[in-house]
Amino acid sequence: MRSKLPGSKTSIFSVMSKLANDHNAINLSQGFPNFETDQKLKDLVTRAMNEGYNQYPPDIGVRELREQISLKIRSLYGKSYSPDKEITITSGATEALYAAITAFVHKDDEVIVLKPAYDTYEPTIKLSGGIPVQIQLKGDNYSVDWDEVKSAISSKTRMIIINTPHNPTGTILDKEDMLKLQEILSNTDIILLSDEVYEHLIFDSNEHQSASKFPDLSQRAIVCASFGKTFHNTGWKTGYCVAPEKLMQEIRKLHEVTVFSVNHPMQRAYAEYLKNADNYLGLAKFYQRKRDLFLNLIKDSRFTCTPSQGTYYQLLNFSEITREKDVIFAQKLVKENGLASIPVSVFNINEEDNRQLRFCFAKTDETLEKAAEILCKL
């Protein structure tokens, strides 16, 4: 049997979560909260079920939810998207990313991927016959070398993928970055795929620079988002994407034959929940407190770091503890100390090892305190 993804390995998230389960370890590896979603939101789902919203919704999503998304984006980023023609509800952001890549990438098309990168981008590109063109982010702050990006563009470049706030590094693209990208892509027909699932998790009074905010970028951008990441319910697998009508038409063709439609009662609940903007605008403060608590708890440890600018991940450098490879150190940390994290090298070009581990701080204070106690003993 010929594999379509020869050499593809089991996800590092699956590997480390299994290790955590096997060794009864504290799991700060996989990106999910270990606290409950808002009871009000759960009650809205129950109400929707009891009101009979248990059959297929419209394939593109419940209109009330698409309307609320349109209002939110216009309020935050000044861009108007048509609920009917430019917004589609998806089975999590991963399906949105899959549909966007699959709809536009053809055999031998090139797609620029900034590394480290979320591990679904490249397999999806390859499944479509495309060629990932990898560019490594630079330095301790994982900045983009825009000259290198510009040089990587060829007549075969079909798409470029960005992710801000960035998983796994916790960095963000600022306004200057987005303007440089806009200049590079001007006068091209290159599609921009912007993964913005952590848009509301951004710290220290910084502002999220959505591709939707920039006129030329927004005309070529597919923006993907996640309710699960936003509202602490990753298991509900509900997300969405927005794009100009000409792009969305093609995405919807893939969406229809992949999942057809998405969980109906959850959509009804989110539509109601989004009416109160405080439900998402307060998340930055909530998660910054988590980040600051975690960093304060480990301030006397031998780890070093730059505070995360966004997401709910924090990179810690362990160079002062051991010269072991990050994968080896991460495995020993689980087996010998009972704490699971993610080694960052697996996301880099040629598995470049900067001796960094990624820790998820979307956890209860008690969990963070227990994890910090382990880290401070190393």
UniProtKB/TrEMBL annotation:
Q: Which UniProt keywords apply?
A: Aminotransferase, Pyridoxal phosphate, Transferase
Q: Which InterPro entries match?
A: Aminotransferase_I/II_large, Kynurenine-oxoglutarate_AT, PyrdxlP-dep_Trfase, PyrdxlP-dep_Trfase_major, PyrdxlP-dep_Trfase_small
Boundaries of every Aminotransferase class I/classII large domain copy: 25-374
Q: Name one GO cellular component term.
A: cytoplasm
The GO molecular function terms of this record are:
kynurenine-oxoglutarate transaminase activity; pyridoxal phosphate binding
Could you tell me the superkingdom of the organism this chain comes from? Bacteria
Q: What cofactors are annotated for this protein? A: pyridoxal 5'-phosphate
Give the record's family classification: Belongs to the class-I pyridoxal-phosphate-dependent aminotransferase family.
Which NCBIfam families does its entry note? PRK09082.1
Which protein, by its recorded name, is this? Aminotransferase class I/II-fold pyridoxal phosphate-dependent enzyme
Query: What is the source species?
Result: Christiangramia sabulilitoris
Q: According to the entry, what is the taxonomic lineage of the organism?
A: Bacteria, Pseudomonadati, Bacteroidota, Flavobacteriia, Flavobacteriales
